[in-house]
Amino acid sequence: MPLTKAPDLTQRPPRSARVRLGGYVVLPRMLDKGRAAVAGTNGEYHYDCPMDQRFLNFVGVDAAALKEQLATGAGDGEILAWINQNAKLPRTEVEINAWSAWMTDRGPSDVDSRNYFNDLHAKIAPKREDIANWFDLLDVDDYASYGGLL
Fold this sequence. Notes:
By secondary structure, this protein is mostly helical.
């Protein structure tokens, strides 16, 4: 099956990290980045970044193996089924919901990440006082990167 569902991330951002698939935040965004990487349209976005690795480690799936599945052209539902079937750490609905809530609220946890967070926030949205966590920062960065005015 050819890769026909790859987004062109040079033209638009991947889905928000807040969007869920199978209850998991981050997953749809990671799939967009993975498909775009396979197609060579990922632009400045990186598949298997630290945020993606948090998901991959949580479920116990190898990034390269998942990327191979994305290259088949499988849709989101098929990929979710593959993840559920191949996860070394199968998760319950309660665990998925708790992890997704934690990820949604997660902010910088050390000095280096706090400095990076603050520097990027000051660069892209210095007047926004509502940027409190990584998902907030990603959303505003995606918006600003594609011409949105803040």
